[in-house]
Every structure is written in C-alpha cells, then in structure tokens.
# Entry
Amino acid sequence: MSTDGWGGSSNSGIVSASVDAGSTVVAAYLYTATQGSNTTPTVALDGVNVTFGPEVTNPSYPHTGMHKADVTSIVKSTIDAGPGGIYDFSIEELVGGASVDGSGLVIVYENSSLPIASVGLLDGFSDILGDTTSINFATPLDPTSPGFFAEMVLGIGFSCCNQASDVSVNGTLITENAGGFDDGENQANGSLITFGSFDDAYSPFMPSYAEDTERYDLTNYINVGDSSITVDTINPSVNDNIFFAGFYVSGEAGFNAPPPSVNAPEPGTLAMMGCLLAGLAGFRQRVKRS
# Structure
C-alpha cells in the first residue's frame, strides 16, 4: 500500500506513490476532503478529471465531508510499466476553491515476491464523539515473529491550530495529537489536510502535535496470541474530520468483519465488502510493506 496527500491554496501540486518494480496495481483511489460546501469539487489527477461518487458528509460534524474517486485507470499503466520507485502525479483543484482542503492518493499493489498481507481501506467519516474499528484474524498473532508488521495511516480534513483527535490501540492511548495540516501548503481554509504518507516517519508514542505524522506502527500494542486489533478514535476538539483510515497488516484479516477462512483460496482480484466507517475495501494479496 502506498499513501500520500496534498492540499493548498494554490490549487495545484503533486501527490506521489512508492511502488516496487515488478508490481501490479490492484486498485487506486483519490480521497478529497471538503468543508463548508456540498458542491462536488472538480479535481484533475495527472491531467485527467476524476469522477467522484456522492459526497459523504460527517453526520457528527456536517460542516465537513469527503469525496472518493476510483483512479486505477489513471495510474495503473504508468506504474505497472514503470521501473519502480517514486511516481509523481500532478493534482489540480479546478472547482471548489477554499472549500477543498486537499486530497490523498491511495494505491494498493501486489507483487509475487512478497509475503501475504491484508490491506483495509476505511473511508467516509469517523464519529467525532467516538468510533471503533476492529481488525480480526483467524490465526493468533505473534508480533515477535521476524517480518511481522502492522501499520495504520489516517487522513484528516479541516484540521489545524491544535485541533486534534485521540487514538487508542488495544486499549492503549497512542496519541492525543492526530491532526494538523501536515500536507497543506499554508494555514488557511483550502489547505487544512493531513494524510499519513509512505515517506513519513512513524509517529512516536504519545507524540507532540508537530511529531504526529498520522502514520503509526501498531506492533508494540499487540500481544502474542491476540486475534484482533482494536482501534478507537475520538475528537475532543469536535471540529476535525477523520475521513480515511488505511491498515496494512501481516497475514489474513477481516476489517470490521470476521476473518477470512484460513483455507480460502487467494483471490486474484480485489474483494469489496460493505462494512465500515462509511465504506470498506478489503484486500488479501501479496502486497508491499511500506
């Protein structure tokens, strides 16, 4: 999984992807965060206007919303035929202005040389008064096993000025400072977005506002024998919108759903499952650990 974000009052910038050579793109999505408007924005990725689905408004904070577009057809040929490494894509906000805080590009890819892992993309909104996500495994976890990994990234819109959310993993509070405009050009409406990226360092335990990158290594909060990972969020400032959560974990997992059967055949294409926040795409592939 590769994730990256951008937002800015200039209305044009770059979002990037990091993909190993020899990989095949399974799916790619652009998530655009908005506030103060129900108008569908017009956004171009690499010169192509994307097609958004209906706006998903956060009912616990209706001032904010997000739009999602499947952009697989825009990025797939470039990446599949590319040499691997970093790929840059131009992004332009053509209609929306200051009501568009920015976008996050998420790419899921497979590579036959990599171990089996699961990717969960949860999008829409998280209740500012508290929300819970569960990642469920058929086989007990061993975070001490060589090569084990579990990471999470968040996309948060309309956030700045010490507005922040709390995140707990398996009952341990890991941050009180998820938020900010890390991926925005400036502190102004139209630029207030943070999106955990492949090139961000993992956030330290209980980071400061500046240290929180919205990318987290969950390994230290998992015990040997656990069969699930539970993530709780709450927004005490009651004015941010967590519109995306991405998970990348070792093994075969169900996201807000029972785990797949350990005897189930590996899918050749992405599996879409209708549980969520507001929507969940689940992938069980040989996917790259960022």
User: Anything to note?
Assistant: The mean pLDDT is 90. Residues 72-80 form the longest helix (9 residues).
